[in-house]
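Something for you to look into today, if you have time. Could you write out one complete protein record for me, on any chain you like? The space below this message is yours for that.
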Amino acid sequence: MVKPLYNLPAADVEDHAAIHHWLAELSSHYPPPELEQIAAACAILIQCQGERRIETGETHVRHALSTADILVRLRMDSETLIAALLNDCIGQGECTAALAQERFGAGIVRMLDDLMQIGQIANVDAIIAAKEQDQHEENLRRLLLGIAEDVRVVLVVLAERVHLMRAIKDLELERRTKIARDTQRIYAPLANRLGIWQVKWELEDLSLRYLQPDDYKRIAKLLAERREEREHSIAAIIQILHETFAEVHIQAEISGRPKHIYSIWRKMQRKDVEISEIFDLRAVRILVATVADCYAALGVVHGLWKHIPKEFDDYIATPKRNLYQSLHTAVVGPGDKPLEVQIRTHEMHRHAELGVAAHWAYKESKGHDAAFQRRVIWMRNWLELKDEAESEEASDFIERFKSEFEPAHIYVLTPRSKVVELPKGATPLDFAYAIHSEVGNRCRGARINGRIVPLNYELRSGEMVEILTQKNATPSRDWLSPHHGYLATTRARNRVRQWFRQQDHDQHLLGGRTALERELARLGISDKPNLEELAERFNFKRGEDMLAAIGRGDLAVGQVARQVGARKTEEPKEPEIKTRPPRTHRKERTTEVIVEGVDDLMTHMAQCCKPVPHDPIVGFVTRGRGVSIHRKQCSNLAHLPAAEASRLIDVRWADEGRHPGYTVDVTVIASDRKGLLRDISSVLSDDDVNVLGVNTHSERSTDTAAMRFTLEVRNRAHLSKILTKLEQIPDILDVRRAH
């Protein structure tokens, strides 16, 4: 069972008398100047807290004294005790930060500020999804360490939690369970990381006592002896080992402890065994200089006591995956009771306690964070230093810790008290994008602890951040400017860039679609393009990506339009079924058009629309002049009387390339200038285009010229190429095929 130890008198003793008694007990631990400072803090505690009580029913004065007394047993310095006594006093009665600084110094005030901030966080319940609970608790532990610039602040928090756990037995079940669960999942692991074993063990045992009372009582009863007796047994075992090692000249550092109830319960749960099968209820650790000494010490242990079969592990010859090295054995010790023995070198021990093999680094941590682990190691180093160094050296170490180590991350809270991890230097905008991209996109302001701040405000650990949004708000390009300091995280910058890329994509998509439709209309192509097929030809995943590339200017619209026009040409023609041997032609076909179902029928190209190969065409049976070939979009056919419509017949183009050329009319609109006709003629000449006719008209009122050229082209692709080149002539406003 857990038995709390205090230097304080019974709970029914008045606070003034309890303080007097406690100060008298401290006289052998602290020098007179420090005792005077501690007494002054006690006087302020009485003055500002009076009869104020905490939720357990005891006075705040007695709670603060109990917390400070636990720190005395941890051999903490006087400044830590003063911070524990004055915790939650600032702002109560006449106690102010200025008064505390004048009386005790700026360092104490900084510790009190951190304690007040941690206290506010600890008293807020977060609304967290079950699947996020583990990560939230990990972040909360990191938050507590992140707020505390001084490791002694964490010691005060843990000591206060120990006393609270000792005093909650009379609280309502729901509240008692909540406090015990938080202690088990947040505060005990925190003590473990800092290597404060006696605090860790007591917090774990007390948590189990309230969360699993039946299991706790059963294990306590099965142990059949008090903790103090087991501790005396361990001390006797250590004495035997020291004497035996001295006889064989092995220099060894030996420590030991009885296994606490929570650890026994965890092992029983993990291995699904009864307590009789747990062999490390008592354990000792032996540290020696060399690996050879490890095996020599193992021989000594096995010579003293009988080895338990199958309870030996050589992690020196075969280290664990985290590089942990040690010899583990179990023997039947004095009194025929099992004893676990761990043997390792000092270097192995340092690696196990402070390196990657440390328990917390692989059992608790949710992902490797070298900077955070280094911060914990520094804190543990200070806790070890405080027992060996003068107070001035310890203070220097703390200052060096603050100056040399800056945490790489901060931990802030949402309005629902969820802890969010961000890189140091992060802003409210970074926080907004960490919550959700839409929250960041619509962000228009932020409150920190209820106070409006600018969006480039640098967040600090422990602050509660609330993002103010507007429904139609959008990101600003200023957010991406490093000079304004709005964004510090890569994630947030990428989200802003992605938003702008999406907006630009939509505009480019619309522009590309419009440009392609205009180009197809100009070329007289009425076929609806298959965008997905075209995208594949130009190595795009989707048709929309191809259209956006046209809009950005990365892909020439003429290239795509020509592919649409050439699509039918590339499609394989169905073979004609010959029902009789082909007839011998008396003369060569004079056109490249085939009238369906009729051979050797005279055809000619209509001059009203001048079709070229691969234009959609239709035939019109004339009176005495054979079949006139028109484009299907020809305006003359559109107004054809109903009585004449029966004279329309199906025709198609024959093999391409046998006809020397096809005539087409092209309209050019341009700003009127000297040499314009010469430039157009030069382009046509360079491309070996035969000009059959030219008609020009200048409009003085608008200073424009309208020109109509009758050209001879080889096919539609040739026509598209000519139109593209004409467009590139300076002052050309529009070039299109005339209808």
